[in-house]
Amino acid sequence: MIGLALAPAFASAAAKTTIFTFANFATALSVGSTILGTLAQAQQSRRNAENLRTAALWDKQRKDMQRKQEIVRANNAARKLMSEKRASVGARGAKLATGSTLLDTQNVLDELADAQYWIEKNYTSSLMATDAELAASLHKESYAQTSSVIGGVANLGLQTYMATRTV
After folding, report:
1. pLDDT value of residue 153
2. Residue 92 and residue 90: Cα distance in Å, rounded?
3. What value does the mean pLDDT of the chain take?
4. Residues with Cβ within 8 Å of residue 108, at least 6 apart in sequence
5. Rounded to an integer, what distance in angstroms lies between the CA atom of residue 85 and that of residue 101?
6. What is the pLDDT of residue 113?
7. 3-state secondary structure the chain
8. How many Å apart are CA 32 and CA 47, to the nearest integer?
9. What's the confidence (pLDDT) of residue 57?
10. How much is the pLDDT for 97?
11. CA distances from 10 to 4, 6, 15, 25, 128 (A)
12. Which of 92, 106, 111, 145 is 20 to 30 A from 75, alpha carbon to alpha carbon?
């Protein structure tokens, strides 16, 4: 009989000191989910940054191939023009590389050099634009990663505060 009379007193004392309550379990799950969510966001941001770097490398490689193709086209156009000039010189019966034929040759070479200069200029400016876009995108991802970590820490602090405060 004495044991039954003391049972409610021990039960209430045991219930107050136990850490395995539903509220504690729910708080632990909430904290765990916040930590895992923050980690997943940070990892996704890292993956996005790596994908952006890879895409920029592919863009640079594509632009390099385009530049080489444009140089080949310019060289072919100059070669064709030089061939036409030589043919016209032969048809006129003039000597090659003298007088006006030398000026014609020099004009073709000047046009080729000008075309190659502008091809290189366009290539350089497109690479600079790609680098600027990459830097802006990487900055955006870095900001997203930092804000997700800060948000996760703040949310964790809020959850801890809400779980430990007394009403």
Report:
1. 81
2. 5
3. 81
4. 78, 81, 82, 85
5. 8
6. 94
7. CHHHHHHHHHHHHHHHHCCCCHHHHHHHHHHHHHHHHHHHHHHHHHHHHHHHHHHHHHHHHHHHHHHHHHHHHHHHHHHHHHHHHHHHHHHHCCCCCCHHHHHHHHHHHHHHHHHHHHHHHHHHHHHHHHHHHHHHHHHHHHHHHHHHHHHHHHHHHHHHHHHHCCC
8. 22
9. 93
10. 60
11. 10, 6, 8, 23, 75
12. 92
Q: How many residues does the chain have?
A: 167
pLDDT at site 17: 58
Domains of the chain by residue range: 56-167
Which positions of the chain have pLDDT values less than 50?
Answer: 1-10, 13-14
Predicted local confidence at residue 76, as pLDDT: 94
**pLDDT given at position 94:** 63
| Cα 82 from chain centroid (whole Å) | 45
Q: Which residue has the tokens 């036409």?
A: 84
